[in-house]
């Protein structure tokens, strides 16, 4: 039966009169263009990406620095640093003793022994360098209240105040300033009643593990499980976001050394594993998409391109669920607007890389830092693979989202951060479902978030 909009409203009113639960209509706008790769030429150098990042951010950084330090001279280039106290604006680069060397990794990969690297590559010998398109200068964090070098990474555009030591060639930093939380625009009214988005990641369908918790998840989303209160909550779900690693490909041994033996057999087995996993995932996706809007993001372990931004998965991979208009395949990172709430997030590769090359008290601090730095993935392309954009840096955060998330995290965490201009954002660390059996839910009305666990 086909219903037009007027008939649908009448039909919903009748359902409400009979105390039946229905889902309210939700408007979703997806920015497909921001993270789309156009010409896909892989012969370009990465220097232009850094230049684009600095060029776009230097103006706002200099204006903010002059407001904060109005009586201090601003050095226009690192080539011409005055002797007296001054302000420098540039891109940080972190010299790391334990940072893997590509040539060494390749050499070791040719041996039969696996390459072992520590989980965290920070050391006491790390140092910072500031650079622009003309020169670079070492930094010494001499002032009080400065951040630990271990908390910083390469690729952050900053302003520093201090004095140049002409003898040693080192700039002595007194204060450092980040871009800060970007401005926020509110377009249109936000929901007046409770309306939720489900953030899930790491379903890893296709493995040998039990799918009981997965069945509980789909039943909950579809309003077919739990108490009357749970079903009421399910009816208020307006959008489901699957933030990467939706399938798992079973592999025997270490695929990095597959070229040493039976490569053809290994490739065939991997292909069969992908086909089987996609088929199983399509069944789950069909069940969810038949009831609610779904945004499907690729992840590090999904059959997608390795470098960020990962392009959206082709719909033809999902024969059944692709027939539903409620399913939208999107990029990673993903930017969308749901019921006038701006959503921005990744499948977690950016946070995993920050955790490897810097330290924080809590994992959610990494997410907050990227918002303060106004950059989704500052370590790209240094230690995080990304496409070599030449005319722009799509990872810049020019506008504060209402909901900012990272998928495939060890555990759930959430935090409300507020800016000096009244900005307000809900940060969410989306748990890996295959490890935790839990998802995150965010209320679009008031940005409150919580974890929903599915236990056996």
TrEMBL record:
<comment type="similarity">
    <text>Belongs to the DNA polymerase delta/II small subunit family.</text>
</comment>
<keyword id="KW-0539">Nucleus</keyword>
<dbReference type="GO" id="GO:0006271">
    <property type="term" value="P:DNA strand elongation involved in DNA replication"/>
</dbReference>
<dbReference type="InterPro" id="IPR040663">
    <property type="entry name" value="DNA_pol_D_N"/>
</dbReference>
<dbReference type="Pfam" id="PF18018">
    <property type="entry name" value="DNA_pol_D_N"/>
</dbReference>
<feature type="domain" description="DNA polymerase alpha/delta/epsilon subunit B">
    <location>
        <begin position="197"/>
        <end position="413"/>
    </location>
</feature>
<dbReference type="InterPro" id="IPR007185">
    <property type="entry name" value="DNA_pol_a/d/e_bsu"/>
</dbReference>
<dbReference type="InterPro" id="IPR024826">
    <property type="entry name" value="DNA_pol_delta/II_ssu"/>
</dbReference>
<dbReference type="GO" id="GO:0003677">
    <property type="term" value="F:DNA binding"/>
</dbReference>
<dbReference type="InterPro" id="IPR041863">
    <property type="entry name" value="PolD2_C"/>
</dbReference>
<protein>
    <recommendedName>
        <fullName>DNA polymerase delta small subunit</fullName>
    </recommendedName>
</protein>
<feature type="domain" description="DNA polymerase delta subunit OB-fold">
    <location>
        <begin position="45"/>
        <end position="176"/>
    </location>
</feature>
<dbReference type="GO" id="GO:0043625">
    <property type="term" value="C:delta DNA polymerase complex"/>
</dbReference>
<dbReference type="Pfam" id="PF04042">
    <property type="entry name" value="DNA_pol_E_B"/>
</dbReference>
<keyword id="KW-0235">DNA replication</keyword>
């Amino acid at each position: 039966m086909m219903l037009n909009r007027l008939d649908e409203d009448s039909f919903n009113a009748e359902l409400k009169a009979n105390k039946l639960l229905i889902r309210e209509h939700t408007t979703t706008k997806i920015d497909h263009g921001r993270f789309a790769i156009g010409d896909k030429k892989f012969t370009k150098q990465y220097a232009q990406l850094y230049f684009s990042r600095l060029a776009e951010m230097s103006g706002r950084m200099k204006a903010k620095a002059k407001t904060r330090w109005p009586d201090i001279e601003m050095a226009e280039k690192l080539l011409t640093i005055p002797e007296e106290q001054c302000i420098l604006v540039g891109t940080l680069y972190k010299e790391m003793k334990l940072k893997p060397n590509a040539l060494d990794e390749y050499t070791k990969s040719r041996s039969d022994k696996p390459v072992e690297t520590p989980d965290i590559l920070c050391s006491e010998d790390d140092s910072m360098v500031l650079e622009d398109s003309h020169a670079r200068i070492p930094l010494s964090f001499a002032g009080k209240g400065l951040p630990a070098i271990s908390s910083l990474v390469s690729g952050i555009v900053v302003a520093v105040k201090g004095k140049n030591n002409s003898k040693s060639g080192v700039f002595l930093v007194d204060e450092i300033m980040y871009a800060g939380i970007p401005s926020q625009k509110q377009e249109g009214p936000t929901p007046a009643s409770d309306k939720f988005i489900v953030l899930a990641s790491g379903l890893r369908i296709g493995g040998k593990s039990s799918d009981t918790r997965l069945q509980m998840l789909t039943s909950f989303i579809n309003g077919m499980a739990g108490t009357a209160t749970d079903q009421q909550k399910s009816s208020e779900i307006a959008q489901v976001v699957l933030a990467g690693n939706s399938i798992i490909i079973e592999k025997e041994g270490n695929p990095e050394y597959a070229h040493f033996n039976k490569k053809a057999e290994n490739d065939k087995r991997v292909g069969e594993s992908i086909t089987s996993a996609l088929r199983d995932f399509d069944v789950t996706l069909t069940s969810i998409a038949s009831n609610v809007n779904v945004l499907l993001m690729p992840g590090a372990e999904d059959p997608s391109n390795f470098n960020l931004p990962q392009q959206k998965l082709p719909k033809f991979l999902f024969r059944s669920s692709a027939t539903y208009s409620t399913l939208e395949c999107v990029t990673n990172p993903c930017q969308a607007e749901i019921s006038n709430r701006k959503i921005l997030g990744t499948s977690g590769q950016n946070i995993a890389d920050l955790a490897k090359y810097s330290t924080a008290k809590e994992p959610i601090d990494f997410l907050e830092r990227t918002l303060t730095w106004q950059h989704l993935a500052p370590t790209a392309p240094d230690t995080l693979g990304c496409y070599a954009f030449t005319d722009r840096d799509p990872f810049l955060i020019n506008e504060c989202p209402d909901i900012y998330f990272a998928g495939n995290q060890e555990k759930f965490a959430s935090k409300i951060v507020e800016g000096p201009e009244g900005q307000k954002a809900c940060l969410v660390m989306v748990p890996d479902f295959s490890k935790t059996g839990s998802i995150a839910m965010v209320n679009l009305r008031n940005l409150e978030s919580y974890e929903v666990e599915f236990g056996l």
